[in-house]
What does this fold into?
Amino acid sequence: MTAFVLLLSDAQVVSAAVHTESSVTEEMCSAAYWNGLNAEADKVLMSAERIADYNALALKTPECNMNDLTAMDGSYDAGALRDKLGEAVIREMPQKAVYANSVPVDVNSYYTALAAAILTTGWEGKLYPKYALAVAQTQIRSVPTYDYIGYSERDSDDEAVLSSLRVNEPFLVKQYAAVNGIPFYYGSSSNISGWVMAADLAICSDKSQWLAMWQTSPKEKFIVVTTDEFSLSESHYMPKTSGVKLTMGTVLKLVPEGQIPPNIGPRGSWNNYVVYLPTRDDNGKCEKQIALIAQNKDVSVGYLPLTSGNIVNLAFKYLGNTYGWGGMLDSVDCSAFVRNIYKCFGMEMPRNTNWQKNVPGTLADISAWDEATKTLGISSCVPGVPLYMPGHTMIYLGTVEGRVYVISASGSLSDSAGEAKVQVQNSVIITPLNVRRKNGTTWLSNLNGVVIPWCFTKE
It folds into this structure.
């Protein structure tokens, strides 16, 4: 025993440390650290009624570019839309080199073929939109292709991706195209319009079925996913719900207590949340199936209370995750990061940073302030507010020793200390605002807006 102890004492101890920006300490890499500095972390910032008012007002704000899908289901000329979409592919084709799946393509031939597919396979006549639900985490794209479109052989962004859809998120379908045998639907989500692979959407029989799956009310119980992602259990006997990936902000209705069957496939329901999940039958129609979510998964029954502490907690669920432009790689970019966090409180946020700055609430234009004034102003804010600079948004965490710290899904930047050497991060990271951009300026100097969405006036 003595020899064993001596052997242990002589052994080399290896300390594994997470790599961070130079001013970010190990203790800062915890939501508890920042919430411990915030005396009002548990204060409710907005009631459910106020959030409903906020959402209604956001839908009516043109600068938010949000879609009220429930009011967009009137008839339309499908042939005219088909022609318009085909023309848009040609008109908006990149005027630079394009790589599909890292292989160079002839730009004119590639995009002309996409336009031709729309024009030859698209619908025509007077139609009504089809009510659809996402059955998988999926992408909304600018053109009907599932190729990874880059402007270089190693482009880190799929340039065709516009946004993403969570499971059970509604989508209004208005057009169709078959490209190389792969069917796509064109339509609108709550925050953007584009093309989605048909295999990732299920078409509801009517509007009432569609609304019943995703529209929530105080009388119904539902769960909200409050972590970055998890997958449902694999099942040989339940293939349509097996391994389905759920991401932050996903909302699923709970099966009422008296309607829970004794068994779901080969399993019972004990210590599980029993939810309704949209699935797709062989004809692409929506089938409501029952699925189990293990009790250990990070979900909330109903929306979380909107508190500063909860915003910070949710932000840290993404810490270290990969950056995904528009939701590619089943991940988040900076605006989706903010959008998914606020969805957990029942709040709808627009797609991109410029649109988010126009949500109902107080927008402080700080573009003309010097860095000292910006630091003082931001430090007076409640942690959790979104901060904006051209092309980027982040969540304010707190101020330590005169430095403002944020968490965000970030691309390239330089450490706040030492030589200004920009490095690709493409991760959700914690940084002070004195990190630097490619031109040598700090994020703080570029900051131009602070948005406080819970401070708005109802019209």
Summary: The first helix runs from residue 2 to 10. Residues 28 and 34 are 7 Å apart (CA to CA). Residues 69-208 form a domain with the SH3 type barrels. fold (CATH 2.30.30.170). DSSP finds eleven helices and 27 strands in the chain.
